[in-house]
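We were asked to recover a plausible sequence for a given structure. The inputs and outputs are reproduced exactly as logged, with field labels preserved.

PROBLEM: sequence recovery
POSITIONS: 83
GIVEN STRUCTURE:
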């Protein structure tokens, strides 16, 4: 993950506005090793040497969003900062 925190915050706001990133409370979250998939926030791959957080939402509980731990924390803070 190479983007600065301010750039990631701006990206999160853009993704929220486009409906590509949700602000809702997840159904569940699971942490594990990266699977080589792209992080929904920064867009970079989450390698198997890195931690990955899979976040599941209703109404599609079988289609997780994948995050780096730092990206997950930023998403969480941005999602619920206005509440």
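RECOVERED SEQUENCE:
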């Amino acid at each position: 993950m190479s983007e600065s925190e301010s750039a990631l915050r701006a990206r999160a706001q853009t993704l929220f506005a486009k409906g590509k990133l949700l602000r809702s409370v997840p159904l569940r979250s699971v942490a594990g090793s990266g699977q080589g998939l792209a992080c929904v926030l920064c867009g970079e791959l989450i390698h198997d040497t890195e931690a990955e957080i899979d976040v599941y939402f209703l109404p599609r509980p079988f289609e997780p969003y994948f995050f780096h731990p730092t990206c997950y924390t930023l998403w969480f803070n941005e999602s619920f900062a206005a509440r």
